[in-house]
Structure formats: C-alpha cells, structure tokens
Amino acid sequence: MIVDAHHHLWGAGQGYAWLDAPALAPIRRAFGPGDLEAAVEGSGVIRTVLVEGGRCDTAEAQLLLGYAKRCPLIAGVVAWADPADPALADTIAGYRALPGGDRLVGIRSQVQAERDAGYLDRAEVRRGLRTIAAAGLPFDLVVRADQLAAAARLAGDLPDVRFVLDHLGKPSIGDGAAGFARWRAPWPRWPPART
To answer: Residue 142: which residues within 8 A CB-CB, separation 6 or more?
Structure first.
C-alpha cells in the first residue's frame, strides 16, 4: 500500500497568499481533488493525507475536511490551529463536528513563520500541544532548519506528544553544501553513535 502522507490542495482566491511569490508562477492555478485523483492515477498511491496549506485560519479546515468527505482518496486531514489559543480544545471539537471531521488526523501551525526563537518554549504553546495530544492527535512541526534544535528539545520535553517533522526541517537545498551544513549544524554527530 502506498500512502502520500503530505500534500496540499488550493484554489485561486482561497487565501493562499504565498502563491503570489513570482517563483511560484508555475503552480499558481487551482489544484483540487480532481487534479489530485488524476495526478495519482496509475502511481500505486491508494490513500493520501491532505495538509493545511498555509492560510493559517480555521475556515480552511472546513474546506479541507469537505474535500475529504467527498474524495475517498483522502484518508486524513491535518488542519491548522494555533497551539497557543486558549480555545484550542473547542477548535478541535469543532473540526470533528464538521462534515468529514472523522478524517481529522493531525494539527499543524506555521511555526516556520515565528521569529521568536523561544516560541516552542512558551508555556501556552506547550499547553496547547498537550491539548492536541489529549485529543489523540499528533502535531506537525513545520519548522526552519534554525528551529530544529528547539523542536528536538520540545519533543524531548513532551514525550507524550506525537510529532511529525514536515519537509525534513526545511534544509536550504538551493544553497547546496552550505545549506545542508546549516541544516545539520544543530546535531553534533549524525548519525547518532550506536550503543
């Protein structure tokens, strides 16, 4: 069984401002469930996980869960939610009450956009991550390479929270060996020594 564990869908005028970047002109078009089905046809992919696409609003969850309700290929949805929101438990419950809410499989926020180096250490963020875990969901870490050490510390501090590392922590592959070196820098030895 092949599962595409991370993909996005978007449409024009749906609030995906990041698509306005000039370099993204080749993908600046609607890409919906029908496009997904056509793209995986003949590939062996039988299920997918639809991941929030950077809108950073709760309304996107209704859209994505609606896609999942109508498209059997989509086995699960990772929706956006702010882990520091005091109403996070209500937000998750609201997502589950939506059509397709039974396909909610994770929560993520755009940690990569946070400029506060201590964001992942904030008490309200950690409290929210525990709320996500109590709801039986993992938290997707979409972080930059310079946030990997904080993400690893977070995972070590919260062993009861399941984390998914998105995009390998975003190494700057366009910078070649230098970008990979910056990505690898937080880790004193890789792979870890076997004991």
So the answer is: 108, 109, 110, 111, 112, 166, 167, 170
Residue 190 has pLDDT above 50, yes or no: no
What percent of the chain is predicted at pLDDT more than 70?
95
The pair of structure tokens assigned to 146 is 């310079």
Query: CB under 8 Å to 35, separation ≥6 — which residues?
Result: 9
> Average pLDDT in the 138-149 region?
93
145 or 186: whose pLDDT is higher? Answer: 145
Provide the b/e sequence for 131-145 (b: ≥16 CB within 10 Å): bbbebebbbbbbbbb
Residues making up the chain, counted from first to last: 195
List all residues 6 or more positions away from 84 whose beta carbon is below 8 Å from its beta carbon: 122, 124, 125, 128
In the numeric block, the tokens 């993400």 are attached to 151
Fold of 2-184: TIM Barrel (3.20.20)
Strand-strand pairing, 139-141 and 45-51: unpaired
pLDDT score, position 193: 54
3-state secondary structure of 151: helix
pTM of the predicted model over 0.85? yes
